Amino acid sequence: MSTLAIIGFVMVCVFMYLIMSKRLSAMNALILVPLLFGIGLGLAGMAPLGKLGSMVMDGIRKAAPTGIMIMFAILYFGTMIDAGLFDPLINKILKVTHGDPLKVIVGTALLAGIVSLDGDGATTYMIVTSAMLAVHKRIGINPIILPTVAIMQNGVMNILPWGGPTGRVMSALGLDASQVFVPMIPGMVVGTIWVMFWAYLLGMKERARLGTVTMAEAAAAQEYVVELDEDSAKLKRPHLFWANLGLTALLMAALVSDKFPLAVLFMVGTALALMINYPNLKTQQELIMKHGMNAIPTVSLVVSAGVLMGIMSGTKMVDAMANSLTSSIPASMGSHIALITALAGLPFDYFLSNDAFYFGIVPILAKTAANYGIGAAEIARASLIAQGCHLLSPLVASTYLLCGMSGVTLGDLTKSALLPSIGTSLVMLATALALGLFPI
After folding, report:
1. Residues 6+ away with beta carbon under 8 Å from 132
2. CB-hemisphere CA count at 13 Å for 351?
3. Contact at 8 Å (CB) between 393 and 154?
4. CB neighbour list of residue 66: distance below 8 Å, 6 or more residues apart
């Protein structure tokens, strides 16, 4: 193993240690750790010190489109949730599911999928629990079931490019959503079907235990509405429902068609959504500030990752690391590295944070895979398979919010959701392999 490769692995280990031990935030570690190592390499004559700044800027330029896309996607879906685009469907779910444990549980999973479109797990858990927890308690459903189906469904939707992991891997490998996310959509559909099937099994078990509880339809239908405060109610635009639905459908169709960059689509979509729903400039500014608070943490991570990737690439550190890994993999296993990435991602992405996995490990695997003719996009898709069970990791902050609001412990949630969540990843893996998204 070369000296440069050893330094690279040490840098990754230092980065992972600092963020996992909470000695530095992920953003600070992404900026400071590679800079310090880059300066050290320059002083040792192993890298051009004078070009360190240009290396960083090259990395940031590659990461910027992903950061822009994430920011405007969060603004768009946040605006649509404020305007009430999803309210009729949410209230319909609540109305239809009254009294029947099976319908309530499946409806909870469906609701979690809808609300997860904004890419923020904490928001999803707050809305789902505030809408459905009282219904679950009134019927007497096992309290572990609501957080189980919510976290399973959010695990599928977490692959959305503005949800975090996909943005990280696109930034780390210099890819765009059309290369990584769009091919994963069929797997997300199959993963959602799996979650609904699991919710159905849980519902059948609870129906057999509880029967159907008589419950006022109106009371169930208004569980979501009563949670709205006065300010939120003022933002609702029910008279613009069809306009918002049409705009969202058009945006999704353009996304799948791959005719325009995702960043441009969401920039235009956000501008139109704000103008259509909130012509008042002050209200627009308030909403941008409100949802910008959700966007800033993820966007700052993506842009900061440009520092790490720029220095790793510019100093040829990542090449040396990949070469050392290549030499350690038996020739007979090299062509299977994408499948190895998908399977190894299950424990890696559970015990590591998304930042450590996607910024620290996946780029090395991608560079190694290139030596076997496997593209970075294929490794990126394989690495996302693990998202089916990542949210159960004790390193995910929003999971503690879900546990607290649902009144369950992380241990109980893990016992209930870990195996079926691994199942989510496996069915998504089977779908990806069937579609040839990466080689076996």
Report:
1. 94, 104, 107, 108, 111, 146, 223
2. 7
3. no
4. 161, 167, 170, 171, 176, 263, 302
421, pLDDT greater than 50? yes
Residue 314 has pLDDT above 70, yes or no: yes
Contacts of 318 (CB under 8 A, 6+ apart): 8, 312, 363, 364, 367
Domain extent listing, the chain? 3-435
What's the sign of the alpha-carbon dihedral 37, 39, 43, 48?
A: positive
Question: What is the C-alpha separation between 125 and 366, in angstroms, rounded?
Answer: 33
Interatomic CA distance for residues 158 and 168, integer angstroms: 12
Number of neighbouring beta carbons within 10 Å of residue 133: 19
Rounded to whole angstroms, how far apart are CA atoms 262 and 69? Answer: 6
pLDDT tens profile 222-272: 444 445 556 777 888 989 999 999 998 898 788 767 677 778 888 999 999
In Å, the largest CA–CA distance within the chain is 77
How many beta carbons lie within 10 A of that of residue 240, not counting itself? 16
**Closest to 33 in 3D by CA, of 264, 267, 257, 310:** 310
CB 120 within 8 A of CB 402: no
The three-point CA angle 228-88-196 to 5° equals 105
Q: Among candidates 114, 116, 130, 111, which has minimal Cα distance to 164?
A: 116
| pLDDT over threshold 90, residue 196 | yes
Distance of alpha carbon 143 from alpha carbon 148, whole angstroms: 9
* pTM for the structure as a whole: 0.70
Residue type, 359: F
Among candidates 419, 399, 414, 434, which has minimal Cα distance to 189?
A: 434
First to last CA, the chain: 28
Of 203 and 260, the one with more pLDDT:
203
Query: Of 439, 431, 434, nearest to 159 (Cα)?
Result: 431
Evaluated on CA atoms 40, 45, 50, 53, the torsion sign reads negative
CA distance linking residue 301 with residue 161, whole number of Å:
14
- What six digits make up the tokens of 279? 């012509």
373: left (phi over 0), alpha (psi -120 to 50) or beta: left
For 228, the token pair is: 């709205």
The token pair at 151 is 């976290």
Length of the chain: 440
